[in-house]
Amino acid sequence: MYFLYTIIASLAVFFILKWLKKRRYCTDLRRLDGKTILITGGNSGIGKETAIALAMRGARVIIACRDPDKAEKAVREIKLKSHSLNVLHMELDLANLSSVREFCKSFLQREKKLDILVNNAGMPGVLEWTDNNFSMCFGVNHLGHFLLTNLLLPRLKECAPSRVITLTCSSYKYQKLDFQDLNYNQLPFFTYCRSKLANIYFSQEVARVTEGKGVTSYAVHPGFVQSGWTCHYSILFRMLVQVIMWMFFVPCEIGAQTVIYCAVSDEAAKHSGGYFIDCRPATLRPFARDAAVAKKLWEASERLVNLA
Ligand SMILES: NC(=O)c1ccc[n+]([C@@H]2O[C@H](COP(=O)([O-])OP(=O)(O)OC[C@H]3O[C@@H](n4cnc5c(N)ncnc54)[C@H](O)[C@@H]3O)[C@@H](O)[C@H]2O)c1
């Protein structure tokens, strides 16, 4: 009898886990021939899977990464899996604003087109500082991408219709921004939540400042994904999280689906400034839709990165 109960319980757990991990795929099969796509942090995790999928559709894909060796290895893998030779990497460290400026300068010199910018790179909750003394999460996840997008906006406008896709996280809802302490660096998880909330306000403000100029903007929660973000933590934490990830998180290929959807779908384009989960628009908590806060963050960020 116990044997029967064990089998029934195992089957129940199996189907519950399967249901929890069920996700929608992007069913829009549009090709992207002739388009140039820039993906930050495209050498691993969701960014790499996005790069493979978009290169497969014919786009020229540029991954912007910190480590040239890892980037080169990723480029080889993306080419192999996508059967495309139109993939390359460029050096970018979002934790260093001079690196962001250097990157944009050489990108604009080298590349005549930019149709889709994917602000994918991200740091999980860590209590570190960037080269410019910003908290690592706020500095990399928000400020680095803020400067990058602003410096590339003229090219995105020239290439309109064009898109800016910014990876955020549903954990945005656990924190609010404190304008007295944007550089908050105390509890790692909350530091991460605040940076991901900043990504949402940023994405909305990109939509507002580019309204009528052919640039659309999307904030994407990719789901909880089995990627490499745990590499920033101790081996013990990694082992524990690995089990949880295996049980509840989805593979990177699925995590990339909503990004791909926002890159190609006409339906998504009707919701510029929107928040997307599982290949469809999702509703944000009211405080995360506050246009005045989004504008205030934009202006504060302009000052912090010295954007005239
Ligand atoms: N994995 C999840 O469950 C999950 C959930 C919600 C949101 N996200 C978001 O998805 C995005 C992709 O994360 P992932 O899960 O693929 O993790 P990942 O760690 O595999 O990828 C993050 C990428 O960002 C790059 N990066 C980090 N700091 C950088 C810097 N200073 N300059 C340039 N590149 C830098 C890393 O090298 C890496 O390639 C992140 O923005 C993350 O916040 C992930």
UniProtKB/TrEMBL annotation:
Coiled coil: none annotated. Keywords: Membrane, Oxidoreductase, Transmembrane, Transmembrane helix. One of its GO terms (molecular function) is oxidoreductase activity. The keyword Oxidoreductase applies. The chain crosses the membrane at residues 6-21. It holds the Pfam family adh_short. It comes from the Eukaryota. PANTHER family: PHOSPHATIDYLINOSITOL-GLYCAN BIOSYNTHESIS CLASS F PROTEIN-RELATED (PTHR43157), RETINOL DEHYDROGENASE 14 (PTHR43157:SF64). This is Retinol dehydrogenase 14.
